[in-house]
Amino acid sequence: MFGKEAPYRAMQKAIVATCACVLCAALSVGARDERMFKGEITDSKCAALGGHKTMLDPGESDAQCTIACVKAGAKYVLADPSNKAIYQLSDQKKPEVFAAENVIVVGTLDNSGGTIHVDDIVRELPPKVAQAKTVAIICDACPRGMAKAPRVAYEQLSDWERFTIVPDPTKADVVFLFSANPYLGDYVTRDGPDTRPVDVAATYMNVIDPRTGASLWGDYDRAGSYFVASATKNLIAEFREQLEIDTNPAEREAFLKRHRVPKAAQAVGK
User: Fold this and answer.
1) CA-to-CA distance for 166 and 172, rounded, in angstroms?
2) Which residues contact 40 (CB under 8 A, 6 or more apart)?
3) Which of 56, 109, 196, 215 has its CA 20 to 30 A from that of 256?
């Protein structure tokens, strides 16, 4: 009995080892092939027609047209104008909040079907961010632990040496706004500091256009009052990664690594 069983078990071990090698190779290939794709989130119908013009209803925006076409049976796709490529997207839920926006999709490409297997989708930074030279740092309603945010931000930006830090926000190209509450988009219209109750459960960072109040980039780190300093460092590092993905290989790899695992859904208005 044992004589027959031994070769069988040896064969089982060989099969398991082979499968493990194949799986490792597949994972390795996936990691090597994972990259960024830039373009506009649109719908397959309008993309095939070369744009939204023929599909737009009166008063309808490109984003509304995209969403309406998808509800009517089209699929979300990524249109890259640089090479006129149209990529199918494996995930049809994430793209909705980015309809008609320029984005960066992190994932792997299935060349046979032209489908990107999506890990994450991130809004592309507007040109104003890349062109900015001066920055002002504001901590909005920052009691207790949140008071660390502007000091740490100043240290991080000084070490980075990309921006000149100015004390007057009206003379800055962009404003780095830190808060324990989500940004409401009211930097220009409100009369004074944020009056909402402050519970330091998260640190929010928004890069704001001081002329319009628009958030050009934003994210948050869900950490409590004792971790505001590390959260601020992490948020500035994340912003730097995206800002330098086209010029700094190390930051590009850090950006890819950060977005290989999808993050929690981001709050509207960040």
Assistant:
1) 7
2) 78, 79, 81, 100, 101, 102, 103
3) 215
What CATH architecture does domain 35-123 belong to?
Answer: Beta Barrel (2.40)
Phi, psi for 49 (deg, rounded to 5): -90, 0
Whether 28 shows a pLDDT value over 70: the answer reads: no
Domain ranges in the chain with CATH number 3.40.50: 127-260
Q: What are phi and psi of 120, to 5 degrees?
A: -160, 160
Q: Give pLDDT tens digits for 136-183.
A: 999 987 888 899 999 999 999 999 999 999 999 999 999 999 999 999
**pLDDT value of position 3:** 47
Contacts of 12 (CB under 8 A, 6+ apart): none
Helical axes 148-160 vs 228-243, angle rounded to 10°:
30
- Short-list 143, 259, 257, 129, CA closest to 195: 143
Please tell me the class of the 127-260 domain. alpha beta
